[in-house]
Predict the 3D structure of the following.
Amino acid sequence: MGAEYTSPDREIMEPRAARRRVVALAWPLILSNITVPLLGLVDTAVVGHLPDSRYLGGVTLGATLFSFLFWGFGFLRMGTTGLTAQAQGRDDIDGVLRLLGQSLLLAVAIGLGLIVLHPLIVPLGLALLDGSAAVTAEASVYAGIRILSAPAVLANYALIGWFLGRGNSRVTLLLMVINNAVNIVLDLVFVVGLGMTTAGVAAASVIADYATLATGMVLALGVWRRWHWRRVAGVFGQLAGYRRLLAVNGALFVRTLCLLFAFAFFHAQGAGMGDTVLAANAVLLQFVLLASYALDGFAHATESLVGQRVGADDRAGFTGVVRAAAEWSLLMAGLAGMAFAVAGEALISVLTDLPAVRALAMEFLPWVAVMPLLAAGSYLLDGVFIGATRPRAMRDTMLAALLLVYLPVWWLAQPLHNHGLWLAFLAFTVARSLLLGGVFIRDWRRGRWFATAASQAAR
């Protein structure tokens, strides 16, 4: 799996073939997404049975901190996917392999930087999360161990992005399954078997991350060996490649920070309205997360296929991929919205047995039921722009949606309380879709998509 180089199909994708290709790439990604909450459930179950609640609080707080910290560097996955897909589309084998090495070096350098800076980063992050003294102390223990996995986590992002750019989404599924399986087994061994607490959960995550990295490197080196080790020198040369990689990732980093701020702001405003509102919003955001599993799967498949079509200068194939991905995304979004509307009450009951939280969540359920359809465009277009390596448009439209729509709508809608908060979040999501969609249509009419890719390839 992943040991052979596959050249892009230069034939124009017929609609039926494009639909099959999109779903073939998407389903392993959807399954890999579903494995993520499974690990969280096991962590909670294992630590939740310890005699003191501070352990569960510490693991939860620490895991939240690292989710935000590592997610902030998710650009390493996105940027690598788009650039690799385009190199593969051009049949640029050297470029595909060089991107692997350059992305890994960048990821490891950032990861080591995080380890060096963690005495500053971790206390600041935990202070912002504002836990009790006992819980924060346990979270500090967790963080002191978990930070050691930073190089592995970020290198895994680069590996996953590289394999996805080559059109091999099954490796993504394999790596996620290995990561979560090792993590779950070691959770049980360290906490249940050896009697460890917070440190055991953190150590399990660190070991799992490096086990995943080892697996990914074995698969990747199987590709590299076929083109001789002399190509390693290309990783350290060609500074233009690093400049482009940094330019793409820099814009994506700003875009990711904006998205993190949007979610953090939503949580903070909900918390200011009371514990019941905060809990109800947390329940409903799980619905949004469920919908994102499917929509992200199709978006990531779009990144790979669009990048390959752009790299191959295949305009008809590009159009076919975007159309097929849009059809699948709208179908899944519609099904998710219907499921939330019909089975929302039952799902809320599964997630909480607190009567006040249930009642409040049901009041705001309609916002979540319409969210998938209104958000489908933003997920799809993110995939298109990442695949075409157009990160500046993503950054600029995200900033515009955040500063000109999300925050102003929230300010004006404050008298509506939590309904106003959901309205602002929904408006932000719609604005992202409309703004990116406007850029897509404008540049398509002006013929800029492939002209930009050609100029970048020549650099």
Summary: The radius of gyration is 22 Å.
